[in-house]
Each structure stands twice: as C-alpha cells, then as structure tokens.
Design goal:
86 residues; mainly alpha; 0% strand
Length: 86
C-alpha cells in the first residue's frame, strides 16, 4: 500500500473521530436541555476531541502498517520462493 494512501486513511479516520466525538458530546448536552455550553466545557471538549482524533489516526496508521507492510519492511523471500517453476 502506498504511503500516501496510509496518510489519507489515517487523516480521514482522525477527522471522523473528531467530529463524531464532538457531535456526541455536544448532542448529549443539548439533549439534557442546555442551550449553551460554558466556555470551559467547550474548550475541554475541543481538547479531548483533538486527543481522540490523534489517537485514532495513530492507531489507524499502525494497523495499516502491520496489515500491509511497506516494501522495505517485508522479510526477504527464500531462494525457493523466488524461483518460478518451469
């Protein structure tokens, strides 16, 4: 898998996690009947959403690298595997 696709996948998962966390958190406060969110709570939601987004992006990138290792990290094949029958 090319590196740019890994970066795009990690970035997309990070953005998705940020917005999902923000919508769920702010949706809960709206469902509880609060019309406004205090500044401190909004700041805390933003900081935690950023941390969640970064953790999601790192986890996605790590999973992709383990599942599809870059060519430089693959183990060299044995001589028997390199030979083609014929």
């Amino acid at each position: 898998m090319p590196a740019y696709l890994r970066y795009i996948a990690a970035l997309t998962s990070g953005f998705t996690a940020f917005f999902v966390y923000s919508f769920i958190t702010l949706g809960i406060t709206g469902a509880l009947g609060y019309d406004e969110v205090p500044v401190a709570a909004g700041g805390l939601v933003s900081i935690v959403a950023g941390v969640v987004a970064m953790a999601t992006a790192v986890a996605t990138s790590d999973w992709i690298v383990r599942r599809y290792p870059p060519p430089s990290r693959q183990r060299p094949a044995d001589d028997e595997q390199r030979r083609t029958p014929g």
